[in-house]
Amino acid sequence: MSEIVIEVGKRHIREINEEIQEACKTGKPIRIVNTLSRHNLGVGLPDCADLTFEGSVGYYCGGLNTGSKLTIERNCGWAVGEGMAKGHITVGGRAGMSCGAAMIGGTIHVKGDTGPRCGVAMKGGNIVVEGKIGYQSGFMAHSGKIIALGGAGESCADALWEGEVWVAGPVESLGVDVNVIEPTAEEVAEVDAILEPLGLVDTSRDWRKMVSGQRLWYFEARDASAWLMI
Amino acid sequence: MCGIAGRILNAPGAVGRDLVALMDAQEHRGADSTGFAVYSTPLDKGYVLRGMGFSKVRIDADLETFRATLKEHGADFTSEPAIVSDTSKHYSFRMEISDPKNLQAWVADADELSGHIEIQSCGRSLEIIKDVGGATQVSEKHKVHDMIGTHGLGHARLATESSVLPNASHPFWARPFSDVAIVHNGQITDYYTQRDRLRREGYRFLTENDSELIAVWVSDQMKQGLSMEQALKKSINSIDGVFTFMIATPDGIGYAKDRFAMKPLVVIEQMGELAAATEEQAVRTVFADECDVINYDGPSQFGIWGVGNRSMAA
Predict the structure, then answer these.
(1) In the listed set B81, B108, B124, which residue is the last one of a domain according to the structure?
(2) Domains of chain A: which residue ranges?
């Protein structure tokens, strides 16, 4: 099937996104070229597109995705896949701050590292990072899994709700109110099931699973020790 | 939200053009005002002054009074003031002066006139140009695009902490220290307390802008014996708020980021030249090829990019 090529360059982003939306209706693969790290590319895509961004993109690429498959060949800026509900985003390079912020479903796969607050306030779905997740990743994640194969930066898994942060590799420091627990074989199998389609299963990994200590959940205002954790 | 940028060339070149491109690409981060700090080949003696006056009907009288303060300190204009003005109330000027006997003492006296006329930069190498409006507008008015130099800074301001005034725009000169300028993206939350302390030590602030503090704070630390790198490191735990700032001297550009990693900084380095900005899409206006970017997006980062035989510390 032939692909549709869309040029970014210095054109107006709204015009480009309208062209992408029209191209999605054809069902053909779409290749976006000359991306120049521009912001807001491919936001609000429907459940049918297969897009490849040739090069790097800026902020919010793939935000509010409802089921499309996006491949970003190089880097992306802030908040790739923010608020996405379904679909799959692959980032060939590194992802900037707030990767997958507030996403509720789908998968983001980052082949490099991420910036700070990866998965901040996420409410579902999975983020798989082959490199290292940045400062305070997982901050206030309500649900879903952040799986980092190359370690984590400072303040990891700070103030989690019911989200989980899985790290193989060194963790520079933990955030507040984190419990690091030994995962069960069933839980590891669940993570491997997420990694398997990406070709990233390695049974020799030494996992650290981080969950909330729940001391900051609805804590009593007069509980000074809980306040002092913050 | 503001946008900042830095540019270093291997040799004197079109740094003004590049800074305008870097700021034009970030105009959506703040179009209240735009400013540039350009470093050119240093004068052997004397200084270049850039400044602003606030009453166009008093230009001659104010410049004469200003000149009188200079003469009292054993110096004088060595070039005629070049005036730039349009329909706005203020005007800008550029001139060269000979060396006052004591630069800091003269600046203190000249600053007494700041209600009418204000020095915005003083340096053998540094020139700060700033005004209300976007990058292209400010560049066209002040011919920034044509400025030749080795390195410089740029700033696009979205005013949050103080008014949209031409003199409250960035970059800020670290008065009274020659050739030091800063640009800042963020908010300094304890600036009033810190500024008060520095005022009691004799420093003068001419705006209500929180970022003016950073310039003087870093220079004061260096005056007390810290290297720039040590001062940058100390700033991370001594200045409260969220920030990424860059500080420039004739030797290079330093940067520091807060403890919370809130404000981005993206860098492309190629063939010994460097462009830094808040957004990746901006640095790609200077390095058009799909080259690698370095993201300084962790907490508490600092370092210096030198000019010439550059070294980096982080």
Answers:
(1) B124
(2) 4-227
